[in-house]
What does this fold into?
Amino acid sequence: MSSTLTHVQVSIANQVCTNFVAGFTGDRLDSEASLKPDITLFSKNNAAGLHEDSDTASLVTSFLHMELFVEIKHDTLCDPFRDLGERKMEERNSINGDNTRGQCLLYAANQLAYQHRLFAFSLVICGKKARFIRWDREGVVVSAEIDCSQRHDLVVEFLQRFNQLTREQRGLDPTAVSATPEQTEAFESAVAKIEIEPLKRSVGNWKIYQRFQLEVRGPSDVSYYIVGRALDYNLGVVGRCTRGYLALDLSTGKCVFLKDMWRPDVPGIEPEHVWYEKLAGANVPHLVRFKHASDVVPSTPPVTYHGTTPIDPTETTSWQGAQRGLTCRLAHLFNSSDSLSQGRVHYRLVQEELCQPLSEFTNSRHLVLVVLNSLKGEKRPDPILVVSLM
Amino acid sequence: MDTRPFHSTPLKLTPRGYNQYSAKPVLLAKTRKQQLRENMHGYFLGPMDPTEFMCSFMPINSRNLGSPPDGIDFSKVYEQANEKSMYAPFVRHPVIL
It folds into this structure.
């Protein structure tokens, strides 16, 4: 159904972004997310993303491979934000503004969900006005509006800069690397032996959902896991955004359940594994067997901010060099009255036991039994058991 | 601008909370957009000066970016009569052979 790209007429984005292919994707839905952003940039180094529909010779929409989306509106009043001066702005509360902002949010949420990403950029053009946007799990940074009739050079510079950024600088997670063919083969054969059908199906077809190697650090070593498609991608943009994966543990050759999430970076809110350990120590029944967990620490410390204005050195609960959100620490640069939600730390946790998804219960008795087992700790006087009900 | 309280209660519904265990049919994009807008209200920081934005998040990896390609005319994007016509000057336009 698809073939490599041929015969194209080059335009602005393709003239500037020579390392990418920019295409109109607004006329076809992504096969899973069921969305169609106007314009999408795909990396020329990612052959999997460079396919076109043979019927219409335009790019196939894919949130799995999207590097940048561009939302275009004809009317300036479709701008999703309104600048108020003195580094203040507001969300444009109009039908058009709401619509554009909703579209951008949906695209960004899916881009961050379907890929192993820490952040993403996008560009919004509404008539003569343009804005740059940076999305991460703590919030969104929006540029002031640019009048393209006066300063289109800024939009061109944005595209020029984007064109030469490394994968990591574009937001891709360096601790998630493509699995080798041998690893992929081992993963497929391990998954084939899984008896829980919904889990087995969840990994998706390897031809569509590329297999990745993820790492989880221990105190003195690093463990590697192979994953495919996550159980669910309906995550939103900010927050914990937990993705669950059926994973192959390369050290044991056994399948495990891996949770990839953004835990709150707030003193007093313990990471999930701390509670697993406390619950296990209190002999709480019906707990899933927990293996290990860690903040995600890449081999080289992440550098995501290059500005000259110092960012807020907020106290952190994360491991040294861990991947953190950035937006929260930028809040003091703007005239906002309060801090922006809370910081987030990228975190992975591995459970040794595979469980049936809660949505897959056989009958109502089955579901009630699950709830009953989780309530059994209620009889015990230990206050820690309250946590087991969450 | 509005910001979300540091420790807001009760727990807010997230897109996953709205939909994952819902017995309702899959939601249309229009409804999902509305949910996300409500969920994200107060999470936008700005406006940041465009040059500051680029310098803060998009470093130049070589000595300089070089000159932009010749002949870029942005007016061909924003001076179109409708949105559909704005796409082609901005991105590749397939040639029908």
Notes: Chain B touches chain A through 66 residues (CB under 8 Å). Residues 29-40 of chain B form the longest helix (12 residues). Chain B has a mean pLDDT of 79.
